[in-house]
Amino acid sequence: MSANGEQHGSRYHHGNLREALIANAIKLIEAEGVAALSLRRIARDTGVSQAAPYSHFPSKKDLITAVCIEGTKWFGESMRRSAEDRHGVDYLAGLAIGHINFALAHPALFHLMSTRDVSEAADATGKVPEIFDEGYQMMVAALVRTPLPHFGIEQQQLNIPLAWSQVYGLSNLLIEGRITPQTYGFSDLEAFVVAVIDRFLQNSLQPLSDSK
Amino acid sequence: MSANGEQHGSRYHHGNLREALIANAIKLIEAEGVAALSLRRIARDTGVSQAAPYSHFPSKKDLITAVCIEGTKWFGESMRRSAEDRHGVDYLAGLAIGHINFALAHPALFHLMSTRDVSEAADATGKVPEIFDEGYQMMVAALVRTPLPHFGIEQQQLNIPLAWSQVYGLSNLLIEGRITPQTYGFSDLEAFVVAVIDRFLQNSLQPLSDSK
DNA sequence: GAGTATAACTTGACAACGTTAAGATCTGCG
DNA sequence: CGCAGATCTTAACGTTGTCAAGTTATACTC
């Protein structure tokens, strides 16, 4: 919080190495991508020796996890900020746009956060699986609280994975360049995102035709 | 295609190293995850020296790309197979289920395919960005061809990124364990997937209330 | 305020990795 | 048969994650 905390005065022992490492890791990943993220490089950038990080993190993975946790805070903030002045269905749209904006503003970081190794979920300490929770919990709360007409309770439930997948998938496909607004007749990225989200919400607001 | 091609007879020079490397890479990634994918390890598993792969691939990245291309074929097959007996909207559901089934059957491979490094899209040879095209082209074709009532042409267009994001996001969130069917009252994974897809398609089939 | 325990950091080393250069060996063509 | 070229091996370089051992600054006690 507060200033950008270079280092307090000149207390040797570096003062706040832990935070500095996380900050430089984020700086590095945003500048040169996920592939450039090496522990030694981060240490070098921070001005300490290669083994210094081990005083604060048991392994590289733990540093990365800390980076993800930091990213999660920004992510949650982005969603909150984007939705705060809105209400009802519009609030949901705000959350979605906040989500996607974050992904577009911090593509590599977002990518890292969505890429905690598939097989790691099992042996994790229990902290990693909740990495996205702050933002998604807002979404879940909003989906449950927002009165969507014509839906039974179990139908409301299904809206959660539906909306979640939608916004998560769109974020990833956009930052990987697999979906481009131009393909669908939009010159403006923001306008495209708004249109897709609007369309999704409008679809979801319809009463279901009970065909089955 | 055809047999599992161990090696033809005993022609030394290994005969078909290229294919063997790709096959063993896939075998390795499915057995031990993305993190275990090292070039030396693949070579060792294949019974050749560490530098042998360089006769067939300029770099590790190119081997990985070949693996992704191979995966893409399976991916397309899975979608086709899952949709072939269906028609109309049901065909779309089949494609989606085929997509998700592939992701669930080959989580690490799918993860690798969806994770071509963010920053690499730019400098790529032009082949990588099309990695998913086979499957998605089927989906796009089906979305365009399937008669969805009450939609204008530009509204049909928007269905493409909408459906794509939906199924892509759901696949990823499922294999990373972030969405679990139990949370939403489903004990069966397959049933959950069908329910979500059905719900999505039903939503998308509604006429839009022209609120704007 | 001197002395010490402890946390924070450095140095040096190890195995594994991607990649390259140089040489060996097999294959197929004349 | 002999040669050209593709294919593979061996050896090496620099880089990485990690650990063991030693060093240095901080904090606490008397």
General description of the model:
The structure is a homodimer of 212-residue chains. The first copy, chain A, is mainly alpha-helical and 212 residues long. Chain A folds into two domains: 14-57, Homeodomain-like (Arc Repressor Mutant, subunit A), CATH 1.10.10.60; 69-205, Tetracycline Repressor, domain 2 (Orthogonal Bundle). Helix content of chain A is 61%, strand content 0%. Chain A is elongated, with a radius of gyration of 20 Å. The N and C termini of chain A lie far apart (54 Å). At the A-B interface, helix 5, helix 8 and helix 9 of A face helix 5, helix 8 and helix 9 of B. Chain A binds a DNA duplex (30 and 30 nucleotides) through residues 11-14, 17, 38-41, 48-52, 54-56, 59-60.
SSE map:
The structure is a homodimer of 212-residue chains.
Chain A: H1 17-32, H2 39-46, H3 60-83, H4 89-105, H5 107-113, H6 120-123, H7 133-145, H8 153-175, H9 189-205
Chain A binds a DNA duplex (30 and 30 nucleotides) through α2.
The portion of residues forming beta strands of chain A comes to under 5%
Number of helices of chain A: 9
Question: Number of DSSP strands of chain A?
Answer: 0
The name CATH uses for the topology of the largest domain in chain A is: Tetracycline Repressor, domain 2
Mean pLDDT of chain A, nearest integer? 83
Oligomeric grouping of the chains? homodimer
Q: In CATH, what is the homologous superfamily of the largest domain in chain A?
A: Tetracycline Repressor, domain 2
Describe the largest sheet of chain A.
Answer: none
The low-pLDDT segments of chain A are 1-12
Order of H and E elements of chain A = HHHHHHHHH
Question: Briefly, what CATH class of the largest domain in chain A?
Answer: Mainly Alpha
Helix content estimate of chain A: 55-70%
Using CB atoms under 8 Å apart, which protein chain pair has the greatest interface? A-B, 52 and 51 residues
